[in-house]
Amino acid sequence: MEDITELMQNSLFKNYDKPLKAFRLGQKDEGKTRPIKLTFKDEQTKWSFLKRVNHHLRADKIFCKLDVNKEIRNREYQLREQMRKLKSENQGEYRIRDLSIKKRSPSGNWEKINPVTTNGH
Asked: Which of 6, 13, 14, 51 is most deeply packed, by most CB within 10 A?
């Protein structure tokens, strides 16, 4: 939570509305990060914050996404793990969109690949 407070003091955010509330979700588990839920006064403030933070803090490996349920977070985690494995085994660019892994083709298009399924997903 100190990171959020420090982020709000950052010069990039001084002249913008701040989140109304910030709190961690879930139970503490060693080795896993927990999402932080931020509440904003309106949609415009939320989108402005998301664009700003994702643009400026990506290099620090800080990412902000829309709120999703635990099942979707778990699925996204599985996909990130699969993508890391693919990247270590193969050359090429991969990304996750719409709960699927996509690979950049030689023509530059992003093509859905058939991921290995686990736990019935």
From this structure: 13
